[in-house]
């Protein structure tokens, strides 16, 4: 693939760069051919002259062969538009001649292209990746979509799955799976929480990948009475089982059950998403009502000769039949056949896929904006070359020829930007991939097996397209304008002025728009970049380096059969509370752990709710339900009021603790102790009045602001409520204060203690709190970096655009200024006149920008608003400085010199 | 000379790849080799040969180098690349499938339907 691409590029390069050599070689090759044919004909008995004539005749028209040969090398396009290597060379010369303009243009376009390419890479790998499986393009997903609510598919499709498996002919080996997590317990080798695919045996047939050792899952494994078996990934066999040669037949504990290892899949196999352990899916439809049961993902392989549309047609027929037969559950459901990966990113309707493409297009528009800016700069430069254009036109160059030359010059600029942008995007995509791998690896899952962010051929093509688009905007459009009807006038005035191009109203409009957009958009962007950067630098507020954190949960049946669901839930809760309590006691008693606290959320990840503050209206507040020991374990002081006591945890009208921002923003920092608040909406979408208000809760303490959120604002209102284990079950956030720095050995020990209490108890995302904090800060830093890069290119381009336009306009009036000055006009008045006009244009832009900003203000509040006048002032200064230089030069021209110019 | 057949569209590239897979050849040599391996049944139009050679070279399936021919003239020789070898394999398999399917279809008798 790469070698072929290189061959094409080499051939194209030679065809363009060494056209004469290539043509000469071609002629020599043809001559050689004709000579050999002549010799053959002579040896066949023809007279030499006749043989030569016959050979030439057989060979045909040499010139047309040459043309066809050039077309075969992909050069026809260049021949048609008349672009040559000379144009490219001129473009390179222009690059050197105007280094400032070139640098600004290339930087601006590189940033835009890099962002466009990065977005393309990510979106494409979500929408249409290549599945690295044999005939991966034949593997599809199937799901029930709701006609009333297309974005919300119904996955409780066990009964449909049974019907489709029997009846679908366009899809073979229909399979289903659900993901689960279990503790993998190997005696002597520790405990690990692993991701398990409960999958039908047909999954292995769909993947068309035979196991490396042993066997895959078989249909009979799915029977309720079959002994539990597991197939493992090659990497797990190496890592967890030390490549033990007799692995097949060995027993391992996965959560509460012992499983026999029956197979090892080959290296890299992760089907259906990112799984490394596969157990049979054991579900009996009789246990559930129609439309009930666990959520399943379904997939299959298209039968030979069947297209996705054919499969959809058959599914539609089956779906309508089911809807007619079971209207109470299926009236609104329609099965859909989708490209395999789409359900996993919730791209399950054409509208959503289009939304992704639209987002990609919108991101590409950034390049258009940048390119328009560059084209303004280039136009100003082209205007100074009006004389050259006029002379070339007079010497017989067609308009097309000149436009092509200017287009080629722009293509050199955009080509360089594309090369830089592609390199940056390549590095960024690799980094994103590494980051995602690390992030997804830290919770034990890993990336989807098809996820490969890399420079694909499609991506390179997309960037080439962007470069051409940019070259059209940057080069061709100004060129068309510059070579328009005024060329003749330019020629006439050439001798006296060197430029006859008029700018007029178009340019005034451009300046106003440019300034307006910059003034409106910049403060917001600066605010976002600044706040994100601040977020990246914020301290956790508690000694995170001394903590290990995890989410405690317990293995459970995904969807217990309806008949005994209530009893199951009761028993599950009782067992969970008992085991979790026991675990907390054992952890507390461990010599390496100095304190254990639980909460409903980790600090910094609290959900928000609507709460009524007595006498202060309702507000969105971030709420954490915490252990009464929470603040003392976290070493967070309580400067005002008191800590929770054990009575708080039991009282429904308990006291609450708020953060400093709460006290300051709602009560101006005056004593808040004794003030009351209450819940008015449990869910984030609820409005006051939707829900019966809870009891009034009294504020008993104030803690410092700590643990920032992945939000722009750092002064968020936070409320802490005392909680017992039962209030935060079934998923509990645990924070363990350790003596000394957390080491991997400690996390392993915590897992072992947990598994010893109950193998079904699971610790999710078990890691050092400092690592988790660092990861969040890294995201902040990345967002800030991208925003800053965009910001910088926008500022550069806007300032350069405004500078170019203003200086160009004033430069055009240089002669007028000089003559008026010669005629005795007061220089100060002249300058005032020039600046009045420049200021009017800039002022109009600033005004429109401020109005736009007022409309778009949105999240920019407080200090962010102060940026508006600052940005407006900077734009004014840039514009006026641009006007100053040419104006001063105009005044400095000697009157005689100015008159001589006529 | 046996009856000469017109080349089917799209088959010239395959024949050129096959010809150069048997050893490096100059343009005229490719022509003669195709005639030779087809037992004279296939004759390539000389005007079609060079665009096809340049296209295959542009696509990276064959590569060229200058050498000296038997009559001591400078000549351009073509050889198969590894991408070309893969392409030849794929195209040959595809052609065989097609030929077999067409052959099977044409051999069907009324009583077999």
From TrEMBL, chain A:
Keywords: Cell membrane, Membrane, Transmembrane, Transmembrane helix. GO terms for molecular function: transmembrane transporter activity. GO terms for cellular component: plasma membrane. Residues 362-483, 790-860 form the ABC3 transporter permease C-terminal domain. The keyword Transmembrane applies. Its main location: membrane. Residues 102-317, 591-724 form the MacB-like periplasmic core domain. Signal peptide: none annotated. The chain crosses the membrane at residues 101-123, 361-381, 402-429, 459-480, 507-529, 779-809, 830-854, 866-885. It is found in: Cell membrane. It holds the Pfam family FtsX. The keyword DNA damage does not apply. InterPro entries: ABC3_permease_C, MacB_PCD, Macrolide_Exporter_MacB, Perm_prefix_1. It is a multi-pass membrane protein. Belongs to the ABC-4 integral membrane protein family. PANTHER family: ABC TRANSPORTER PERMEASE YTRF, MEMBRANE COMPONENT OF TRANSPORTER-RELATED. This is FtsX-like permease family protein. It comes from Candidatus Kutchimonas denitrificans. The lineage of its organism: Bacteria, Pseudomonadati, Gemmatimonadota, Gemmatimonadia, Candidatus Palauibacterales.
TrEMBL record, chain B:
This is PadR family transcriptional regulator. NCBIfam families: padR_acidobact (TIGR03433). Signal peptide: none annotated. Residues 16-89 form the Transcription regulator PadR N-terminal domain. The lineage of its organism: Bacteria, Pseudomonadati, Gemmatimonadota, Gemmatimonadia, Candidatus Palauibacterales. It comes from the Bacteria. Gene3D superfamilies: Winged helix-like DNA-binding domain superfamily/Winged helix DNA-binding domain. It holds the Pfam family PadR.
